[in-house]
Design brief:
The protein has about 140 residues and is mostly helical. About 65% of the residues lie in helices and about 0% in strands. It is elongated.
């Protein structure tokens, strides 16, 4: 472990580094986009259900419509931010069976299911280039 720490310190000292410096603004921007969408959805729930009796037909219809809008917001965040956000949305969509009415609302599961059926595709060469740049890994797959 001491040898690995010394190698990391030496690599950082000479500027080669084991990992590239992360772009903190990218992560912050993604987080802020997600936070804005979730705050918008929270406001949507609060405003859409005001004055409706829980358990009524009107309440159920308003709640379902609100869920549908929220699901579209989640999908938009996942498609915009990609990466981990897509994986999180795929996880939510995978909770189809067994969640029932007490789990993830059906509107979210149905809307986000498209991310499991049509996940964004990237050629292996593109992924290798990104990984090589970010992690200084060197060579990798050259063909798709």
């Amino acid at each position: 472990a001491a040898a690995a720490a010394a190698a990391a310190a030496a690599a950082a000292e000479d500027g080669s580094g084991l990992l590239a410096t992360p772009d903190l603004t990218l992560g912050m921007g993604r987080s802020l986009l997600a936070l804005a969408a979730f705050k918008e959805q929270q406001k949507d729930y609060e405003e859409s259900l005001v004055g409706l009796a829980e358990g009524s037909t009107a309440y159920a219809a308003a709640l379902s419509a609100c869920h549908a809008r929220g699901a579209r917001r989640c999908l938009s965040v996942a498609e915009t931010n990609r990466g981990l956000y897509v994986k999180a949305a795929q996880f939510l969509a995978s909770i189809r069976g067994g969640s029932g009415d007490s789990g993830i609302p059906r509107e979210y599961v149905d809307t986000l299911a498209g991310l499991t059926e049509h996940a964004p595709h990237r050629p292996a060469s593109e992924l290798a280039a990104v990984l090589g740049e970010v992690m200084s890994l060197g060579g990798g797959p050259q063909s798709e």
